[in-house]
User: Fold this.
Amino acid sequence: MWSADDDPIPYQEYPTWPFLKLYEEQEQAAVAQHVRASYPQPCDPQDSRAVLIWRGKRFLDVLKGFHEGSLDLTGRHPWRYRLYFTRWTSYISAFNRVARYTILEEETIGTGDFTFQLPHYVVTKPGVLEEFEREWKPPYWNVLYPATCSAVEVVKFMMDSPEPRFQNILLTHLPTEILDRVFFFASSTQALLLGSTCRLLREVSLRWIYEGRSLVFRYKPDYSKPLEEEDQDDLAENAKAQLMNTIDSLLARPDIVQKTLNIRIYDEWQSHRDILRGDVSIFTVNDELFQGLELNQDFYGPLLAKIGEFIRACTNATHLSLASILVTPVIAGAMISLPHLHTLSLRGCNFAAGLPLFMDERASTPPILNMRLSHPRFLWENWWYWAFLSLSPDVRTLSVSGSRREPIQVLQDPMREMYNPWPTVERFSVTALAPYQIPTLTSWIELSKADWPLRLTHFMVDTHYPMDQEDLFMLVDALRGAPLQILALSGVRYAGLDLIDRIAEAFPDLVGLTLIHRYKVIKDFERARLSMWPHASWEYAPRFGAFSRLEHLGMNFYCPPITGFLDDGVIESMETGVPCDCYVLPCLEEEEDNDTVARVFAVHCPSLKSFTLHAMPLLNATFIISRRPDGYPIVEGENNWSGIYGPIPQPYFPLKLGEFSWDPISPEAAGASS
Assistant:
């Protein structure tokens, strides 16, 4: 059920945003659910009944939108209206042929007092319905029949307002600033198509079409075949040839390369090296090697050289992200040659021989200000991963992430003076820190602080191995003197009252503080689950009065909920002796009173504006705190209920796609703070 302008769109695992058509978001969700439910068998999501429901609703509601004067981002154009009206007239005629044979049968559902009538629309002449379904591919008749009957409102709107309300303002009438915003949300393919419609949009689209560039060494095996039956080497050769041809075509267009600002390069083969161990000749996984694997230089040498050539050609690039790439001196030299590069992300990368000493050969170029190191792989001692700091001696934002399987280690003593970020770094976070590494981290900070003042404004430590009192106090003391504004400690075992006193005494001007308490080593998905703290909220709250500027507080403080049994009449029945069958009582949800926890802290900390209850990695309730004229706090939920990780706690406890990293510092902001 669609018109000529509404052809079925192909399945996309990650559909682009914003959605242009009515109910397109719900349609894509139904398509994705159908594909997941059918895996690993191939399927055609376009035939899914759930998908057809949303297409049917769109077909029935589009004409109504024309006469109401509100529709979707596709627009209310005369050509679209003509297509839909012609289709609508034909549809109503076919629908009526089936409707005259439709009767209502009600089915009783449930037992006892809990019953209800379920309407069921039956077609007494099945052949008519089958002919209708072949022509229109509708959803279930039981859904379509009442929906179409409700669409009589369309006729009502057409009678009340016989002339459809076509739009007079087109996309090209918008200011260029808004058009820029439109292209910001569009994918590269969408921007290319939109820019091909007219000269104005072409001019606006140019910098967005080529602003981002992704190069992927694809690993796309035939999953219908066993791994050992497929020729992995031929697959790799074909993927390599395709990638190198793509790079050559880009290098032949300097006008395109010069517009590239964001570069993403990903080696899918190395990211699958665990399952490919011993099955390919392009690399050999060897746990005895320092890097953990040995590349076939005849295969990888030309490819890595070509990648380095492309990076060096993108002279206007500001962001570079490498994933599972072996960083050779050629690639490293290309990175530091970029005059505008200020943000570098290395995920699961490794380095070739000689790179740890590359700092001595660094060219005199503007500094890389923001660096993100995550998921070190296959290194004997992954503290060597910090050697990538040689690429960014003036780093301002540094985010280092390990994993539960491979927690990150702190750089060892012999190398600390060579790779020392503390004189320049302002925002630091380390995630999944290895056990017993807090003393090593604090001694590294203390060693640097003896010669250089700390510039830290944001500091976060997340460890799966909880920190005891000695570790916590040692870390707080090491950070003394830093102009800290945001502090986040995740993995606090010792949560005595004096911990709050210690932090407040060292950093009375904190703006944001997050404390995640836990007693034991936990799994990834349990990182921020609620925990029973050793003291009551009313004992902790007065200690926060020592903070003069604290605006946000985040905790995973567990407050036992009030159960619904107190209000269900159970206790009253027990007291009066009236028989009561608890199974027929209405079940009430637990009534949580977490807002009272936030209110207790707000009473003792007058500057507090928000409180986040960290329950799960992506499920956190944030409470907004305002004040009456007399100073009494008013606590309300963020947008009434903040079930998803909202925007408020993000600057204080950054969680993006399961990993932690502070927002990068721009060159302008770095220059102002120098």
The chain is about 35% helix and 15% strand. Confidence is low (pLDDT under 50) at residues 563-567, 586-591, 640-645.
